[in-house]
Amino acid sequence: MPQVEVRSQSASSYKQEIKSGSGHQFVADAPKEAGGAEGGPDPHEILFGSLGACTAITLQMYAKRKGWDLKEVQVKVFDEQVEDANSPGGSILRIHREITVAGNLPAEQVEALKGIADKCPIHKLLTGPKQIVTAIKHA
Description:
30% of the residues lie in helices and 31% in strands. It is an alpha+beta fold. β2 and β3 form a beta hairpin.
């Protein structure tokens, strides 16, 4: 099971140190307009990066298993607010994922890769049923 630990670097800064269970470290920070110093990507960018990276890796693994000539995958992820058809006057977030693949791939393989993109674990996590359980301790 993946696990990360996030620790604020100081009470006067929004910069966060993130340590993964696999030993990697990186930082996140709030954008300047929100009072941050932009010392790293903001959490929204990290989430979108996770979706893009997972999508690309999933396509690469699938193409490799099939023996397809996939040379490169590029994934652009962004969002927009759109009208909520179920709630007049309300809006929802729509996430766009634009994938570009390179290689000697016939149209059928490109179309199959599009379907495989939705099989990426982060896509499933974002779109499937979930629960977030929060516990808090006072140190």
